Each structure stands twice: as C-alpha cells, then as structure tokens.
Amino acid sequence: MRKMLIVGAGQSGLQLALGLQSKGYEVTLMSNRTADEIRSGRVMSTQCMFHTALQHERDLQLNFWESQAPRIEGLGVSVAAPDSSRAVDWVGRFDGHAQSVDQRVKMAGWMETFVQRGGQLVIHGAAVSDLDYFSRTYDLVMVSAGKGELVSMFGRDASRSPYDAPQRALAVAYVHGLGPRPEHPDFDAVRCNLVPGVGELFVMPTLTTSGRADILFWEGVPGGPLDAFQGVKDPSEHLARTLELMERFTPWEYARATKVELTDANATLAGRYAPTVRRPVGRLPGGGLVLGVGDVVVANDPITGQGSNTASKCAHSYLDSIVEHGEREFDEKWMQATFDRHWEDTRHAVKWTNAMLAPPPEHVLNLIGAAGQLPPVADRFANAFNDPADLDHFFFEPEKTNAYLAEVSGAQA
Length: 413
Ligand SMILES: Cc1cc2nc3c(=O)[nH]c(=O)nc-3n(C[C@H](O)[C@H](O)[C@H](O)COP(=O)(O)OP(=O)(O)OC[C@H]3O[C@@H](n4cnc5c(N)ncnc54)[C@H](O)[C@@H]3O)c2cc1C
Description:
The protein is α/β, with parallel strands linked by helices. It has 3 domains: 3-62 and 102-163 and 274-357, FAD/NAD(P)-binding domain (3-Layer(bba) Sandwich); 72-100 and 167-271, D-Amino Acid Oxidase, Chain A, domain 2; 362-412, no CATH class. 36% of the residues lie in helices and 24% in strands. The strands form 3 sheets. Strands 3, 4, 5, 8, 9, 10, 11, 12 and 13 form a 9-stranded mixed sheet that branches. β10 and β11 (211-220) form a beta hairpin. The longest helix is centred in the C-terminal third of the chain and has 26 residues, at 332-357. It is globular, with a radius of gyration of 21 Å. The structure holds flavin-adenine dinucleotide (FAD). Residues 146-256 form the Styrene monooxygenase StyA putative substrate binding domain. It comes from Streptomyces clavifer. InterPro entries: FAD/NAD-bd_sf, StyA_sbd. This is 2-polyprenyl-6-methoxyphenol hydroxylase-like FAD-dependent oxidoreductase.
C-alpha cells in the first residue's frame, strides 16, 4: 500500500486525503490545529463554491452539508454611480447551484471523517526540517498548507504572477439578520457590488456553526477608503465599520443590513495577500522533493471567488494523476507534469482574477452594462464563475465582446 503524507488540512489537503483514502492509500494528514480548534476558531474565507467543485465533493461523497446549506441560484452585479445610486443592477442564473459552507464546519467535519475512516491524523505545525525526515519515509509528501510559512519552499513564478503586492484589503463579517434582496426575494444569489476605483462588496449566504447566515465581504483598493480595517481588533467595531462603508458606498445593500448582528465572537477576518503562482516542486535541504497543492501553488485574490474552487479542482486533478501513476516513483518529472495538468485548467481562473483586479477596460464595462438588458449575457457571465475558460470567448478581447453582444442583441430583437 502506498504511503502518502499531506501537510495542511484545508480544502485541498482534506479533499485529497479523503480521496486517496477512498482509493486504498495509506494516508497521514498533518494539521496545525485540531478539529475543535478549527470549529471554534476564526472564520477563514467566504468559500463560495460553484457547480464543478461541488460535484468533485459529491463524487467523493463528501457533500455532507448540501441539504442544510443555502442553495445559491445566481450571481448579481451592481455598479455604484458617483451619486451612490446604481448605474447597473442585474442577476444571472446558474446552470447548477453554488454553496458556501463555513470552512470551520467543513474542515472540522472532514477531519473527523478522515479519522473515523482509519486515517492517521497528526496535530503538528510542520517545519521544513520535519519534511526532510518524512520525505524519506513516505512515497509522496504533499504540502497543502495554504498561505503559511511553508510556501517559502516553493519559488514564486514571476511569469505567472503579475502582482508582487496585495491588490485588495480584505474584510469579512458573518452575520445573522440580513434581509433578502428585494429584487429577487424568492432565491439566493451572490451579490457583487462594484464601487469603481474604491473596491467591491460581496454579499452571500452561507452555512456557519450557528446555521444559515450571510457574509458581508469588502475588498478595498489599498490606501483607499475601504482600507479601513487594519488594527481593528474588536469584532463589533469591525461590523460597525463594515456597515458605515455600506451606508456610504452601497446604500441599497445597507438597506437590508440595518438589523444584522455577528454570528459569533470569531465571525470577522481582515487581511491582505499578493496573488501568487509558485513552482510546484519544493526541494528540501536533505535533497527530498515535495509537491505543492492548492493555495501553496496557486493563490488567487478572492475577488472572483476562485480559491476554494481551484483548491478542489487541484485535489481532484492530483488524485487522478496519483492513481494513474500506479506503483511508479513520484519523481520530479511526474510532479511537474501533475501540476501542469492542473495548470492547464486553472490558468483561466488566474488570468481572469488578475484581470478583475485592474481597472476594467471599456469593453468590459459595456459587457457588464449590457447584461442588464440582455439576460443571456447575465447568465453566461454568472456561469463563468464556475467555468472561467468560457471567458476567453467573450471577455478579454474587445472584438470578441462586441461580436458576442451583437449576436445576443440580434437574437433578442
Ligand atoms: C477573505 C477570503 C475570502 C475568500 N472567498 C472565497 C470564495 O468565496 N470562494 C473561493 O473559492 N475561495 C475563496 N477564498 C479562497 C479560499 O479560502 C482558499 O483559496 C482555499 O481555502 C485554499 O485551500 P487550501 O487547502 O489550499 O488552503 P487552506 O484552506 O488555507 O488550508 C491550509 C491549512 O493548512 C494549515 N497549515 C498551515 N501551515 C501549516 C503547517 N506548517 N503545518 C500543518 N498545517 C498547516 C492551515 O491551518 C490550514 O488549515 C477566500 C479567501 C479569503 C482570505
């Protein structure tokens, strides 16, 4: 039986550990926190996952919370006008629903399942020196430790990382008591509110430790008015600031948020990081090799909600590569090829996410505006969150955008 070590129990590490376990591999998982510490700890993400990634979880029978988590049926875009009214406001419908399950719930639950199914869980914050030892005793060591210190083993790929500094200041609050969007009270949607030059507010439902909740998530251009959460330690002050900024920049969202309260004492998160693609193979001081997984190798800014989706797709693709490799050695050539196979898909998410961090060109503004009059455009844009490869056909190049809009307008006429 092949022996695998996975370091880091997040979306990618746990999905891969449980997947390998189901295929009969002997898996050891190393986590720097216990399930209870994760469950009672701070929120980590907004973790909205779209159809393909959710299907990967279903295929492994890991969709434990699917019936409890709110079904997110669409994605809406609003653009603030200079007078804080809405220049644009529409909602597109997904072909398959999305869901957000608080990672505190999911990772704690998956970790317990891994142990119940006979997996070996080691609670330990791994250091590079530990990995040196383990690389000699396991057939394959994979590092899925997110954006933690272990990423330093994996060189930054400058050709795939256009930004060397954070492009947004992030501020998340999980709340109870948010009202529905009056435009579509009958279904839930992720609402993306764009405030040109200032940042974005995302609002979405989730399943958290206390049941259904909603997330208020500001992404602020660094140094601008939304970059207002650094040093805020008190959760109630964090929420008050979130709401003040909503009242000022997105009053239509504030209108449904006047009665909200935080879900728990750890319901807020603030931070920032530079989106980074790394080289997939880490070389240890003793000469051993380790393979990077998930955010370790591809860390996107959350502006397009791709990180957990990419982490899930990475775990899915790596699982196939490992199983197909059979009993052969997991050498550097295989590691690179395994990552390349994942990159072939995930490069679309990276290209799009990095594009969304820059000021939008005119043809993108036209596209987003036109979606308000052309429901098929709104639907296609919404579904691109699940399959960013489709954006190559209508988003990046003005000629393709114009041709697509002309085609849809013609069909509607
Ligand atoms: C504010 C915010 C909002 C987001 N919103 C979305 C969204 O809506 N949709 C989406 O798809 N993505 C979103 N993301 C991104 C998503 O959360 C991540 O991309 C995803 O969690 C990455 O999964 P991972 O398994 O690679 O890493 P992680 O989920 O970060 O897991 C890494 C794990 O490794 C552990 N670890 C770290 N160091 C060590 C060590 N030395 N030893 C042992 N264990 C260690 C950590 O504690 C953690 O449990 C968001 C991120 C943020 C910050």
